[in-house]
Amino acid sequence: MQIHSDYSLLRHNTFGIDVKCRQFVEYNDENELRKTLKMLKENTEAPWLHIGGGSNLLFTKDYPGTILHSGIYGKEIIEESDESVLLRVGAAEDWDKLVEWCVEKGLHGLENLSLIPGEAGASAVQNIGAYGVEVESLIEKVETLKVETGEARIFLHDECEYGYRTSVFKQQHKGKFIVTHVQYRLSKQFFPQISYGALKDLSEKNDMPPTAAEVRNKVIRIRREKLPDPAEIGSAGSFFMNPVISESQFQALQSQNPDIPHYPAKGGIKVPAGWLIEQCGWKGKQLGQAGVHPRQALVLINLGHATGAEIAQLSRKIQEDVAERFNITLHPEVLFL
Ligand code: EPU
Known about the structure:
Layout: E1 2-8, E2 20-27, H1 30-42, E3 48-51, E4 57-58, E5 63-70, E6 75-80, E7 84-90, H2 95-105, H3 120-126, E8 129-130, E9 133-134, E10 139-146, E11 152-156, E12 177-187, H4 201-205, H5 212-226, E13 234-238, E14 244-245, H6 247-256, E15 263-265, E16 268-270, H7 273-279, E17 286-287, E18 290-292, E19 299-302, H8 308-326, E20 335-336
Parallel strand pairs: 2-5, 3-5, 4-20
Antiparallel strand pairs: 1-2, 6-7, 7-12, 8-9, 10-11, 10-12, 13-19, 14-16, 15-16, 17-18, 18-19
């Protein structure tokens, strides 16, 4: 177990905000996690927070308590049939390295989720999704420890109550369980999922269906074109969730804006937040050191030395403008701390 005091979180948030936490703990297995939880329970004054790859966090100030981070690694096939495998993955495994490894080993399903920053544990909490695939469609079980008691509990897929960018771990069980491993059901045969707009030309260009590596490479190309390179520019990927509005509100909006992109969704019509933000003139703009990415308005960026407060201020201004112009409330996907 590693324990650090007054520890810089610069490497632990993809926005690249330079803040510190009072204590940082990285545990290597369930027993160390249990010990840590017991220690935190004894010290009731200081807050604590468990993080993953820090790709969905905005630190607006130093964190006054303990940050926990998983050091549980490992990939293990625990069941295998002619058609599929059940792959058990430690929560700390880097997401994109996992996708790459699966593509190399001929284990299929995760290709469309290539290059998403973050760790495996968070994939099961956040239900990461891109290019027509949500990770929940591959998740069979989520192994956790209960914070209160340290007991192990396995959640079956249906108990995770997955929705768009959400799960039971972000809703009624928020803060109550820590994910230690995720079990993914992966197929030995490749069934390309290329109905999403930007992937369609993979089928149109060739007579043969694309390989898993081709789909992965295409997704990587699209992401590199549209999204900032996390190694160079700090961001948290999509800053806001795409709002779902009522059918009647959508129709009114569409009559004013015939080109508005839209998708059917549970409870109404989903409209891209990136489009709304661009219409408000924010694409490529900046406020101090905080900016809106010039190629994807849904992504707020750190232009160098932004503080979390500056990014938060920019996000508020964008919310105000979108609310005023479209009467739509944008909800951040990013957690403010
Ligand atoms: N659009 C604009 N202007 C912009 C950005 C987008 O007009 O600046 C329009 C596009 O033209 C397109 C539509 O909005 O018609 C959708 O854009 P895009 O395909 O880029 O996807 P998105 O809805 O903006 C979501 C996810 C992304 C994911 C992509 C691809 C959310 C919050 N974001 O973005 O996820 O990569 O779809 O599937 O659902 C992330 O979560 O960090 C992330 C990048």
